[in-house]
Amino acid sequence: MRAATVSRFGGPEAVEITEVPVPDPGPGQVRIKVAAAALNPVDLAMRAGVFGGAGERIGLGWDVAGTVESIGAGVNWRPGDRVIGLATGHRTPLGTHAEYAVLDADAIAPAPVTLDDTHASALPLNTLSAAQALDLAALRPGQRLLVTGAAGGVGAHTVELAHHRGLEVTALASASDEQFVRARGTDHFLPRDEPLPSAAFDGVIDAAVLGGAALAPVRDGGTYIGLWPGQEPASERGIRTGALDVRADGTQLTELSRLADRGTLLTRVAATFPLADAAAAHTRLAEGGQRGRLVLIP
């Protein structure tokens, strides 16, 4: 079968389409026939060597939508089940940017019945990141949350889920995205090129990776949650700082899939690429400016 991998680090030209054996599921695992797999910034980071692994062949891809084809021992899924899932791991030989992928059975969830595979594949990483960042923030209904990068993949879902959880949400984004983030459920909007208010929020989820600049809007003793472990700013004024290390969670993803079916979570796809054109998709993502995911189709 074909899979997108890297054996050397670099730009999009480092992405290779290689022939590899079809993987077999072990105990507690399922093999998925991949229908669609979203491309994310973490894939660009893996390709560039941010997570190490020099001299290894590393598989690309975390998000997946497809159909269960075979199962290992102790698995309750059945062949033919339509699923979505998240394959975390920075240095594995095979990711989800492939014709088949093996995932732990507890890392997958039923696909939303209202979404096609292309749009469903955009859900796992971004929605799990948003949900788990909110869990880390641990704010109570009615408290004030600032979401930076609120029009992006994780940011928009954070706005949707924070609104769903009863927080008072302020979205920070480009002025051209105001209508979009208001439709996602934000209570207030701040253009990103205007000064931020001081000590106005109980917490911030920093999807735009502003770092220390995102601390000023947080009250003394509030909370800062970033999305890249190790890049969160040092604490000041008693602000609790932390960063998300997203984990696969089939139970949580099942609830997020249900919220997508209810219209609480909306997915966006900017473009699709054949798996054979994975390098071109990497180039497009690195250029920036997309409103929605880029998705690979095997």
What is the percentage of strand-forming residues?
25-35%
Estimated radius of gyration: 19 Å
Q: What is the name of the CATH superfamily of the largest domain?
A: Medium-chain alcohol dehydrogenases, catalytic domain
Largest sheet: 7 strands, mixed
Task: Pick out the low-confidence regions.
Answer: none
Name the CATH class of the largest domain. Answer: Alpha Beta
Mean pLDDT: 96
Number of helices: 7
Classify the secondary structure makeup into a structural class. Answer: alpha/beta
Count structural domains: 2
Helix content: 10-25%
Q: What general form does the structure show?
A: globular
Distance between the termini: 10 Å
Instruction: State the CATH topology of the largest domain.
Output: Quinone Oxidoreductase, Chain A, domain 1
Number of strands: 16
CATH architecture of the largest domain: Alpha-Beta Complex
Order of helices and strands: EEEHEEEEEHHEHEHEEEEHEHE
Can you tell me about this structure?
- With 298 residues, the chain is an alpha/beta fold.
- The chain has 2 domains: 2-123 and 267-297, Medium-chain alcohol dehydrogenases, catalytic domain (Quinone Oxidoreductase, Chain A, domain 1), CATH 3.90.180.10; 126-243, Rossmann fold (3-Layer(aba) Sandwich).
- Helix content is 22%, strand content 30%.
- It has 7 helices and 16 strands.
- The chain has helices at residues 41-48, 117-120, 124-137, 153-164, 178-184, 250-261, 278-287; strands at residues 2-6, 16-19, 29-39, 58-59, 63-71, 82-86, 100-104, 108-110, 144-148, 168-173, 188-191, 201-206, 218-226, 240-243, 269-274, 293-297.
- The strands form 3 sheets. Strands 3, 5, 6, 7, 8, 15 and 16 form a 7-stranded mixed β-sheet that branches. It has a 6-stranded parallel β-sheet with strand order 11-10-9-12-13-14, covered by helices on one side. It has a 3-stranded antiparallel β-sheet with strand order 2-1-4, with no helix packed on it.
- Strand 15 (269-274), helix 7 and strand 16 form a beta-alpha-beta unit.
- Helix 3 (124-137) crosses helix 4 (153-164).
- The chain is globular.
- It starts with a strand and ends with a strand.
